[in-house]
Design a protein that fits this description.
The protein is 36% helix and 20% strand. The protein has 21 helices and 23 strands. The strands form four sheets. It has a seven-stranded parallel beta sheet with strand order 12-13-11-14-15-10-16. Strands 19-20-18-21-22-17-23 form a seven-stranded parallel beta sheet, with helices on both faces. Strands 7-8-6-5-9 form a five-stranded mixed beta sheet. Helix 11 (317-323) links the parallel strand 14 (306-310) and strand 15 (330-335).
Length: 552
């Protein structure tokens, strides 16, 4: 206990942290290793300790003694005994249930905690998995590997899976020392650490899990590094066709693969090759809601040794279900944030794997691997007519009215003028809004309606500086590589989506000589302002501060 410490631990598993305290930054990074940020007003931030946050901490091998000693050292008051007890119990739950391979057809679930063993023995819903009871657990069919892990995590019991993986069909793949543009190429130190943390020298304890790193820090490069370690046929699933092409370009530029070895399975091209890149949309495609999903058999009908889930926090439910049947394949998730707005973080944990590597965004920024970013929120009053419409609108319509505040147009124009030498993205949730901005300011625009070739040309012109300002809809939220972008003006977003806020900031985080600027425009005193607080939670957790300004 430290009478002047920065944090207060409460009996409901929440932790209050004083932002102005000189130890705040180090304490924040410590808390991020085993707790989740709940809210972040100006002076006191609140975190919550959860079973899932501690399971991920245990999987990362953050020492229990270190957590306890540092928590005591930072705490201003005595820590409630129930919290200390629960931290230890939740942490130690990970590793109490271990899944081991017995034969090609059967696995053994070994349970070292007698209380957990007894509870599971008494659970009628789990009986369908048991082939045979053993002294310290159960035998199960190998085909139930994913289903069992999913069922157990839902009742609070994470499984440490040590059953190993099928090798997959081999592929001759290594990283180049010189890329296709003639530049020297090597993984950064943290990228090598991430690859090693996932692969773990090919042991059964590695081979599945999530790498969490900031946008712009080179998660795709980590994917290439893992592929070179595994050396087998690989399926890469990403968010859109633009990202498919970016993965292809990176593979051809930085690995020894040739064009004939890389396939694209999209709406335009449908080919399966040793390295195949597809999208979540293609995997979940069906002609009607009643029809079956046509392409999910891609998971099981080919001899993949590795499946990479790009932007894994966006994994749709049908892909979760398909993933339960491929637990013998190595599975790598890449993301900037484990936050899911649907609350299915435990599904990611059970079916893709635990967090294997994580570096705070501000640590990468301090070392020059991502750009410094200044975050500013502008609050604008609604014009009188729109204020009246907002006041009389049903609750579900209020957010959109506030988001499309017509006064935002003048501020967008002013901000663009203030950044005449910069590369600017103007992004919004609503097509009508971004189309109006583009038309009024005579700016090029990309939306979901923009044809592929035109979209490709506009992105290329922006990268080469022929276009200085580009208006985009939410199609640019994910996996769009625009390294020179250093200003983003966010005119509207998807309600309180923390993941979207992080991804949008990530579009301007490629390293640059000067700081990037991230502007968020919200209508003052409306539901949009309330949602903005939630949107910013993840970035505040990473150490970003939002300056608030009023636009008259």
């Amino acid at each position: 206990m430290n009478d002047s410490g920065p944090l207060i631990v409460q009996s409901d598993h929440t932790i209050m942290v004083e932002v102005a305290h000189p130890q705040y930054a180090e304490c924040r990074d410590f808390l991020n290793s085993f707790a989740e940020l709940v809210k972040s007003p100006e002076f006191i931030h609140t975190y919550r300790i959860t079973p899932l946050s501690l399971w991920n901490s245990a999987a990362l091998e953050t020492g229990m003694d270190e957590i306890m000693s540092r928590l005591l050292g930072y705490s201003r008051y005595e820590i409630p005994s129930n919290v200390l007890f629960d931290i230890r119990e939740w942490y130690e739950t990970y590793g109490s249930l271990v899944l081991e391979k017995v034969s090609e057809d059967s696995l053994r679930l070994r349970i070292s905690d007698s209380i957990i063993l007894n509870r599971i023995q008494q659970d009628n819903d789990l009986e369908r998995f048991w082939l045979k009871k053993t002294e310290d657990g159960f035998l199960i069919a190998a085909g139930e590997r994913g289903n069992l892990k999913h069922a157990l995590v839902k009742i609070g019991y994470p499984v440490k899976d040590t059953c190993g993986y099928v090798p997959g069909a081999p592929v001759d793949l290594s990283l180049r020392n010189i890329d296709s543009d003639g530049h020297a190429f090597d993984l950064r130190d943290y990228q090598k650490e991430a690859v090693d943390a996932f692969y773990q020298a090919g042991s059964t304890s590695g081979g599945s899990g999530i790498i969490v790193l900031a946008c712009g820090s080179g998660k795709t490069i980590i994917g290439l590094g893992v592929m070179s370690k595994v050396g087998s046929q690989s399926l890469i699933i990403t968010t859109n066709n633009v990202s498919v092409h970016q993965w292809r370009e990176e593979l051809l530029s930085r690995t020894t693969l040739v064009d004939e070895e890389i396939g694209e399975f999209t709406g335009l091209i449908k080919e399966i090759k040793p390295i195949t890149i597809t999208t979540y949309q293609m995997l979940t495609y069906r002609r009607t809601k009643e029809d079956p999903l046509l392409n999910l058999d891609i998971f099981t009908e080919h001899d993949w040794g590795l499946i990479i889930y790009d932007e894994v926090h966006l994994l749709p439910a049908p892909v979760f279900r398909a993933t339960t049947s491929i637990q013998a394949r190595r599975r790598l998730g890449l993301t900037a944030t484990l936050v899911r707005e649907d609350g299915k973080e435990d599904d990611v944990f059970a079916l893709i794997g635990p967090k294997r590597y994580d570096v705070p965004w501000k640590t990468l920024e301090s070392k020059g691997f991502i750009a410094e970013a200044i975050c500013l929120e502008y609050r604008l009053l609604l014009p009188p007519k729109e204020e009246l419409e907002y006041a009389h609108a049903p609750k579900r319509q209020r957010f959109r009215i506030a988001a499309e505040n017509s006064r935002k147009l003048a501020l967008v124009e002013e901000l663009i003028c203030n950044h005449s030498d910069d590369s600017i993205l103007v992004i919004g949730q609503y097509i009508a809004q971004v189309e109006k901005i583009a038309k009024r300011l005579n700016l090029p625009i990309i939306t979901g309606k923009t044809k592929h070739e035109e979209r490709k040309k506009l992105y290329a012109d922006f990268r080469k500086g022929r276009i200085k300002v580009l208006v985009v809809s939410k199609v640019a939220n994910f996996a769009v590589d625009l390294p020179d972008a250093n200003v983003m003006i966010q005119v509207s977003g998807a309600f309180g989506s923390r993941q979207e806020e992080a991804q949008r900031l990530g579009r301007i985080l490629r390293p640059k000589k000067r700081a990037s600027c991230f502007y968020t425009l919200v209508s003052k005193g409306t539901d949009e302002q309330n949602f903005a607080v939630n949107r910013q939670l993840f970035l505040v957790e990473q150490g970003y501060k939002y300056q608030i300004r009023y636009y008259e």
